[in-house]
Amino acid sequence: MFRKLIPTLFLLALIPGAAAYNPSYSMRDLFISRCTGEIAAAGISRQSAADICACTFNQISSRYGSNWP
User: Fold this and answer.
1) pTM value?
2) What's the longest Cα–Cα distance across the chain?
3) How far apart are CA 69 and CA 41, in angstroms?
């Protein structure tokens, strides 16, 4: 299940969304919010989903820095 989840999370990060309409949201907040909703819809608790999404964002950020949205 998680093997398919990581590419999905990465694609979510590339989709411009609420940040275009509300600049007070950081990319991290937007990513975690959208990601949590997607994972929770798959049946994982919202807290676990938020933890997974935060970890994913941190890993991608540490690897790619500012070279990704």
Assistant:
1) 0.62
2) 33
3) 24
- Measure the CA–CA gap between 33 and 36, rounded to whole angstroms: 5
Q: How many CB atoms lie within 10 A of CB 12?
A: 20
- Where do the structural domains in the chain lie, given as residue ranges? 30-69
Alpha helices (H) along 1-69 = 2-14, 18-21, 27-41, 46-64
The string of pLDDT tens digits covering residues 49-68 is 999 999 988 888 888 876 65
CA-closest candidate to residue 66, choices 11, 9, 13: 13
**Residue-level length of the chain:** 69
Note the pLDDT tens digit of each residue in 2-60: 556 666 666 666 555 544 555 566 888 988 999 999 888 889 999 999 999 999 888 88
